[in-house]
Every structure is written in structure tokens, then in C-alpha cells.
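protien #1 (seq + structre)
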Amino acid sequence: MGRSLPLTPLRYLARGLHMWRLLQRTDPRTLIVITAPVFAPLVGWLWCALHRRQLVVDCHPGVLHFRRWRWALPIHRRLFRHARLVLVHTPDDERLVNSWGAPALFLPDDLALQSQALPMPRHTTTPSIVVAGTFDPDEPISALLAAAALVPDMELRLTGDPERLPAALRSSAPKNVTFLGYLAYDRFLGEMLAADAVAVFTTDPHVMSRAGQDAIGLGRPLVSSDRPWLRSRFAETAVLCENEPEAIARALQEALRQQVSLAQRSRERALTLRAWRDHGLEQLKLAVSPLSLPSRRGVLRTV
């Protein structure tokens, strides 16, 4: 790992050159570029400035809130002011970016569809809950495993590469925990559909769970950590809980008891979330279309 660090600047330079050549070849009228990292939008801004094209930046929440990207925040603030639009994932971030004098637009992620899921058989007659995660540091895995021991009458099926966990923590998992490993997206959705409920847990107040939104898109009962962003997105839809073993166990049990009503709430919430996204897409089209310059190719999305 240490040997790869000196190569990182060279890798970004190579990717920047590749991106520039791609833009020269395709000549997009409007460029939508994702950040973080900040290097792709910097290349995009320079190219758009030289060619009088429109730049739209799709801003990941981590850019604004994660310690990892704090060093790049001053660059992003200046860069965003030169963008035609900055797409953000929460209304809070829309207000924040607007306060910098940059044009922000709240555009939530799209939701999963049942047609995208790979049909999966039921693995057991025991009630099962898919815990959708990746074993990132913000996920309270120790508390979750302790909670699993309190509900031996249900199976907890955890997604994500278990090799990311300490060996001692993996070996401490009770028998009703199954590590599914990393799953392709269609199988991931299939596991959600086959389970009785879906759970997402985080200790980070600035995480907006894509997996939780997928569960709502599929009409699945949802359990979620009671964190500010998740509460705002899943309120009155999910069973919310603190990241403590007893609280998690109670929430899982409550989700099974309210399975039918929670599934209905998810379906209703999905209508709202899809309406939010449709509205955001319409605003995006209005923002870029009237002022667009002639182009041979239309819109290019790059990362």
C-alpha cells in the first residue's frame, strides 16, 4: 500500500489527460462531473472555461462533511461559484452551497426498481433481515453483532466484504449472523426482496444511505439508525433506533411485528422520493437547456 502512494499524483495526472482527450473528442455541450475527488471537476472547469461550455458538478456529501476531503473544501467553494449548477443530495447541502454564492440544486438519488432485482429464494423459514452495509468505519458492527445475540429467533444477513472486519470481531458473530460478502447490485436487491426487512446503520450524521433508499424503492420494511439525515429522509417510514445493542434488537423485532404496515409506508414514501427526483431533473433541464451552446454530441457524463 505504501508503495502505491507516490503513484497517486501520477495516476490523477494520467486520468486528467485521458479526460481532457475524451472531452476534446466528444465536445459536450454540458459537462456533468462528479466530485470528490476535486481533480476531475478542476479539469472539467478548465476545459469548459476554454471552450465556453456549461459545467455541472455532482457533489457527493462527503465533499462537504468528511474529514478526508476537508483540505479541498476551499477549492470546491471557489470552483462551485463558476459552475452552472451544483447538484447536492440533501436540502441542507443545497442551503449550504447556496450560502457560498454558488447555484445549488437538490437532486436525490434514484430509487431501485423490482425489475432490477435478481430473484432470490428464501434461505430459511426463520424471519430474516438484510443489514445493508459495507463495513465502513461509521457502521456500528460491534453493537449490531451484540444485538443479533439478543434476537436468536431471526437471521441477520450482512452485506459487505467481511475481510474488512477484524478477525476477532468476525469470529464473535453469533450463529444467526450470515456474512454474504460483496454482492452484485442485482443480487443485492434480490436479497432485499427475499428478506422480511432491511436495516441500515451508521454513526455518521452526514450519511445518506443509498441502500435505505433502495429498500424504500422496493417497498421493503426498513430499520435505520436515528441520525439527522436518515431521520429527515426516512421519518415516518422506518423504525428508527440508537446504535446500541438493546435498541437495535428492539427495532428489528418491531420491524417484523409491523412488517405489512412498514412495507406500505415504504411504498408511499417511494412516491414522494421519486417526485423529488423528477422535480430536480426538470430543474436541471431548465437550468442547462436555455443557455446551452451548440454542440455536436449533447451531454456527456464523466467521473
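ok now protien #2
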Amino acid sequence: MMVRIPVLMYHEVAEGERLDTLRHRTHADYILASGTFQDQMRYLQANSYHSLNANELVQAVNTGQFASLPPRPVLITFDDGYAGNCEQALPILSQFGMKACFFVTVDEIGAEAMMTWGQLHELVQAGMQVQSHLVHHVMLSELSREEAREELLQSRKVLQERLGVPVELLSLPNGSYHRHYAALAQEAGYCGGFSSKLGYVGANSHPFLLERIPVLRSTTLVRFARILAADGSILAGAKLRQRAHTLLNHLVGESAVNRWYHRFHRIDSPHPER
């Protein structure tokens, strides 16, 4: 039987009145209303999905022992470290008995609209994972080998020292990666990493480029259910758009495409300085 495990990728969860105020920070579709997120977590619980610890999934990929995972497995992840992850998402996750892995950018901890160290400790105390999204929200592909190594080493070091938990996983900002990334990540002490490549995790997945599926503001509960059911056709259109985006990155560079994206969507300062 083909293994197809959904890894859900979220960014921010906010109450209705804060949805508009956060739009200058990221694409509006990355900001879910708290009620929508609650409906999704309720659906997971009602349909007997088991939320994984991210290390469980990485270990299964590395060993091929997917049979050791619980039935109907799903991994819930959050990128960037927005404050609503703790203020809104955490109570809902706890309400429905779900675990999640939060990937945070170290240099942005405590910045406007981002989680503080105190909130990160709150996540850890609630049984959630906090892992690396590098020191800076950079295009890893555009860094030198030494710069990439420092991003990987320092983010892991700081998070482990400040939170007192093992940091062995990372999520790639913008899905960007250095050609030496996997080797450098292993040298830095990581055992796996998550990308922005659309798809399901399975036997052929690369442990440092694990596929994910974004859950957006426009994701209806019907679409959410189809994603969880591993209905591959649900991703067809998004995969075509991602291929076009990848081609554009190769032609003009990832940073240039990212700047155009922010201007088009009127995103002022997605990753502010403290």
C-alpha cells in the first residue's frame, strides 16, 4: 500500500478583528480565522486522525518503518513564529488533543506580532515542539556555504540553550535551500527538514526535503478533508503554479521574485528587525 502522509503547513491564526491588521505582514491567505482553525482541528479529532511528533515522521522516513506510526497520521506544522500561534492556535490544539511543531526564526523572536521567548516556553510546556526556521528569514540558496552553515548551527544552538529542548529539525524559509544544504544540516546536528514542496510524505521522500501542504484562508473544510484523504488531484492546480514559480526563481533569482511578490500583495515588512 502506498504511504501518503499529509504534513499540514500553517502560518498564522488570528481572531476576526485582527485579520485585516496583519495583512501588511504576510499574504492574507496565510492568516486563518481562529474559528476556521478550530473547525479543522475538530474535524481531525472527530475523524480519528492522530497528530504526530515531527521526529516520529522523520524517523519513519529514515528507517522506512511507516508501520510503526499510528493509524490516520497527520503532522501539523507552523512556520515563522507569529504570536497567534500561541495566543490562538495553542488553546485550540490543546482543546482537541492535537500536537504541532512550530518552526521559528530566531532573530524575529520578540519582534512586533511575533512570539516572545515566554510564549515559546509556553508551547514547550504544553507538549508542542519548537524547532528551527534559521536565524534570519533568508534565501538559503543565495548564501555561501559558510553563511549557510552559520544559519543552521546558530539557530539550533540558541533555541536549545534558551528553551532547553533538543532541536533536530528545521523548516526552510521560502522553501529555499543551498546545494550543500542536506550535508551541512547533518553536520550541524539536524536529522530532518521540511520544505515547501507540495505533496505527501512517503517512502521516496527525502528526509531533509519533506513535502508539505499549505492550509490557507481559502481552504474550505471540504478541501481540507480531501487533503487529509490523500486525494492527489486536489493538489494538481497548485503544483502547476509551484512549477511556474520555480522556473521564475531560476530565471531571475529567488530574492527578486520574493520582492515582486511582496509588492504585488502590498506586504510591507513580513520579517521585521527587532
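The chain is about 40% helix and 15% strand.
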